């Protein structure tokens, strides 16, 4: 079957989709967007976290047909426009992950970045206070890092939240 | 495989009627795992995520009518006062990403004995609404579950809603697992008190072939509870209540825990639930 939806603001169409196929498979294998990672295929790890109509979901648990006509946002879409030197600008969350060393093997990073982006959008981005550690931990509870680099990840999210609050721009979504 | 994608409730019912073997899919948190792991190859998927009626909730007579597709996140954020035990259970479901997708209807459709919604539904005497082209019927949650993965739902029926009585007292839920998140219950327990009728309801999860209750424990607590002031129970009363709850369980031993551990965990949760309910009662939950 044919499935049309928007990804990161652009209209896309996938052809010959098998009805039991996941949104994750369509993104990675049919649309050339490998940022969302495929690991557990059962919602345990959060590596495939994407936005679906503004809320975060595990793309491995969305049937492709369920995304028809909906808005999907992937980690690829978090990056801003071209920077001064012709490189694409990282989002606040991405920058904070790089700076604090919250990336080890990097496999869980895209999912964590999207989930952290959503947390920041829902808290400081909505005019609220920066999330405390308990709130950050709860928000990231469904994203596993097998390198166990959680302390740096927490630091990255705290840093990103503080910066967003200072700039008053809110999260990317 | 066919992908059926009705956008109205009526169309969903006729689709289920003409293809009773079609597997309903809402949040996908159970169905997609089975597909991803090649455990199931149904002839058709019946996508219910576009049926607006299923995502709605509101008052209906003495009940809160909760559409089968309302995601857990919404129950946690908006229904904590109207459905305290269910909201507490919803808060323990998996992770934020899963709570954004998963729903009570999905939990009921899967009918796993470990499902987090079941103990609160059983404890408070909720009704499960089943719909088909033949009509709508409401089955008490206490009679809905028949065994692991089996329920009173007929093949041509869809779970359309649950009906929750208005809370009339404290409601608690707790769950034992290996982590504080992303965990399937090793055992779970819900206690619901009704100050108006001075009765209690219990719900036991993940400790039997289906969600269970303990009528004996309910009667004992109803007789012993301090309905005047909500004083803490005596240690002996709390212990006896815990024993009655544990005795009503029919646990198996498996990779998540032994049968005796499950009984022990239930007795601890039952005792705590009484203390917590008494505290809520003193604070005005009645």
Automatic annotation (TrEMBL), chain A:
Output the Pfam families linked to this UniProt entry.
Fer2 (PF00111), Fer2_2 (PF01799)
Task: State the UniProt keywords alphabetically.
Answer: 2Fe-2S, Iron, Iron-sulfur, Metal-binding, Oxidoreductase
Annotated Gene Ontology MF terms?
Answer: 2 iron, 2 sulfur cluster binding; metal ion binding; oxidoreductase activity
Every copy of the 2Fe-2S ferredoxin-type domain together lies at: 1-78
Is Oxidoreductase set as a keyword in this record?
yes
Annotated signal peptide:
none
Q: Would you say which domain of life the source belongs to?
A: Bacteria
For this protein, the record's InterPro entries field holds:
2Fe-2S-bd (IPR002888), 2Fe-2S-bd_dom_sf (IPR036884), 2Fe-2S_ferredoxin-like_sf (IPR036010), 2Fe-2S_ferredoxin-type (IPR001041), 2Fe2S_fd_BS (IPR006058), Beta-grasp_dom_sf (IPR012675), Diverse_Oxidoreductases (IPR051452)
Question: What protein name is recorded for this chain?
Answer: (2Fe-2S)-binding protein
Query: Where does this protein come from, organism-wise?
Result: Streptomonospora alba
From TrEMBL, chain B:
Q: Which PROSITE patterns match?
A: FAD_PCMH (PS51387)
Can the keyword Coiled coil be found in this entry's annotation? no
Under the heading InterPro entries, the entry gives: CO_DH_flav_C (IPR005107), CO_DH_flav_C_dom_sf (IPR036683), Diverse_Substr_Oxidored (IPR051312), FAD-bd_PCMH (IPR016166), FAD-bd_PCMH-like_sf (IPR036318), FAD-bd_PCMH_sub1 (IPR016167), FAD-bd_PCMH_sub2 (IPR016169), Mopterin_DH_FAD-bd (IPR002346)
Phylogenetic classification of the source organism: Bacteria, Bacillati, Actinomycetota, Actinomycetes, Streptosporangiales
Q: Where is the FAD-binding PCMH-type domain?
A: 1-169
Q: Which GO terms describe its molecular function?
A: FAD binding; oxidoreductase activity
Where on the tree of life does the source sit, at the highest rank?
Bacteria
Question: Which keywords does this Swiss-Prot/TrEMBL entry list?
Answer: FAD, Flavoprotein, Oxidoreductase
Question: What is the protein name given in its UniProt record?
Answer: Carbon monoxide dehydrogenase
């Amino acid at each position: 079957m044919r499935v049309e939806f928007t990804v990161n603001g652009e209209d896309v169409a996938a052809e010959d989709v098998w009805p039991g196929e996941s949104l994750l498979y369509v993104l990675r294998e049919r649309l050339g967007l490998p940022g969302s990672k495929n690991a557990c295929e059962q919602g345990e790890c959060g590596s495939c976290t994407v936005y679906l109509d503004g809320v975060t979901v595990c793309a491995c648990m969305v049937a492709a047909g369920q995304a028809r006509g909906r808005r999907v946002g992937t980690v690829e879409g978090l990056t801003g426009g071209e920077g001064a030197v012709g490189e694409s600008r990282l989002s606040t969350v991405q920058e904070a992950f790089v700076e604090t060393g919250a990336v080890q093997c990097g496999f869980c990073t895209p999912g964590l970045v999207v989930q952290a982006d959503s947390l920041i959008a829902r808290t400081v981005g909505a005019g609220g206070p920066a999330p405390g550690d308990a709130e950050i931990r709860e928000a990231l509870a469904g994203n596993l890092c097998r390198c166990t680099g959680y302390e740096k990840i927490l630091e990255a999210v705290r840093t990103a939240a503080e910066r967003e609050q200072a700039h008053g721009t809110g999260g990317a979504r | 495989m066919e992908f059926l994608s009705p956008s109205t409730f009526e169309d969903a019912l006729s689709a289920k009627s003409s293809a009773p073997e079609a597997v309903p899919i809402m949040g996908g948190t159970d169905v997609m795992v089975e597909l991803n792991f090649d455990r199931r190859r149904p002839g058709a998927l019946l996508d219910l995520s576009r049926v607006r009626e299923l995502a709605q909730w509101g008052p209906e007579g003495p009940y809160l009518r909760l559409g089968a597709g309302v995601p857990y996140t919404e129950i946690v954020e908006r229904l904590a006062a109207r459905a305290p035990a269910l909201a507490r259970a919803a808060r323990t479901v998996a992770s934020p990403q899963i709570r954004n997708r998963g729903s009570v209807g999905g939990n009921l459709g899967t009918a796993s004995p470990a499902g987090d919604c079941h103990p609160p539904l059983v404890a408070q005497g909720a009704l499960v609404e089943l719909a088909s082209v033949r009509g709508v019927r409401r089955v008490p949650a206490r009679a809905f579950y028949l065994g692991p993965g089996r329920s009173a739902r007929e093949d041509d029926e869809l779970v359309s809603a649950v009906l929750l009585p208005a809370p009339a007292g404290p409601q608690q839920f707790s769950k034992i697992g290996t982590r504080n998140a992303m965990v399937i219950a090793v055992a779970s327990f819900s206690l619901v008190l009704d100050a108006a009728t001075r009765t209690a309801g219990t719900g036991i999860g993940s400790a039997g072939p289906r969600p269970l209750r303990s009528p004996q424990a309910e009667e004992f607590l109803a007789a012993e509870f301090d309905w005047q002031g909500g004083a803490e129970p005596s240690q002996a009363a709390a212990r006896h209540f815990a024993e009655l709850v544990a005795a009503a369980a029919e646990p198996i031993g498996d990779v998540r825990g032994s049968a005796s551990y499950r009984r022990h965990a239930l007795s601890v949760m039952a005792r705590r639930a009484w203390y917590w309910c008494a505290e809520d009662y003193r604070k005005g939950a009645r």
